[in-house]
Automatic annotation (TrEMBL):
GO terms for cellular component: nucleus. Residues 122-184, 185-241 form the Myb-like domain. GO terms for molecular function: DNA-binding transcription factor activity, RNA polymerase II-specific; RNA polymerase II cis-regulatory region sequence-specific DNA binding. This is Myb-like DNA-binding domain containing protein. It comes from Paramecium pentaurelia. Residues 149-188 form the HTH myb-type domain.
Amino acid sequence: MSFLHIQSYQQSTEESSHPLNSKLNFVNIQAIDLKPYKKKWRLLFNNVPSLKILESIYYDLQGQSIEDRETKEMIFLQCILLNMRAPLNLKLNEEQWIHVNELMPTHKTSFEWSQMCQQFLHQSAYNNPWSENEDKLLLDIILSFQRMKKGNKWSKIARELNERSLNKFIRTPKQCRERWGNKLDPSINRNEWTDLEDLNFLQLLLQHGRRWAELSIRLSPITNNKKRTEFSLKHRFKKLISSINSIESRSIHGTRYAISSDWNNKEISKLLCKISQLEMKTNQKEVENFYYHPLTKQIKFNDFNKLVIIKGSSKVELDLSILFNQTNSQLND
């Protein structure tokens, strides 16, 4: 669907007496505040089109074949609905649909006009699960943006998805970002959690607080750069903490970890208790290797001969295999 940005037009005295104005009550339309309608409807214009433009659309639609017929028909229909002060949910009775049909230069049944109007409504994605076609289209768009080094500009990605999708509802930039981050990103870690990963997760969580996106990046070096989603991190945190009772948590005193100000004393006690339990279950050497101090960089080798360096929310990988191969070849020479 094309979105036309039609400029507003100051009505003249001549326009107020125009025959089309008696049909649409153009003065009435121009006085309407569009803000509440823009929140609920997908308006095809930023400002009410001028009478001159509406007249042109009206006579174009009476012709046999015109370019952008559907878009122009929708613009005219939206102006009629505004003129009628149609309810925001666009649920009109039969008499009102008959009136719409009388005003439109093209003829459709009441059901057909009703179906067209459904395309104007913003609908919640939570009531409309993502389809397989939407997932494929979103993935194609994001990968295309990455190939062209456009980055993840979610507002542009959402706009392109809505323009190319056949759905009647709009996906917001936030919904596109969450769908990518929680479902479509090929780097998502879907493996079972290990005790060591649980331990490292809680250590980082204790120090950095509920910064889920940042924690996902910081945790990825120990899982071969496979990332846990923000949703899975939140769910895992609740599951781990819920297994600690108040009596166990009271026995923990003191810590060598820096603690985020996000936590209250009760939460700190539970986190420290669970960390202590996991430390007993895991190899102490591995624990010490991963220990993170907030004032230093976090450095770790993964299984692909790459050095992973994390500072803040940034991550850099250095391929050491090239260095090793060069060293070996020099020794052989």
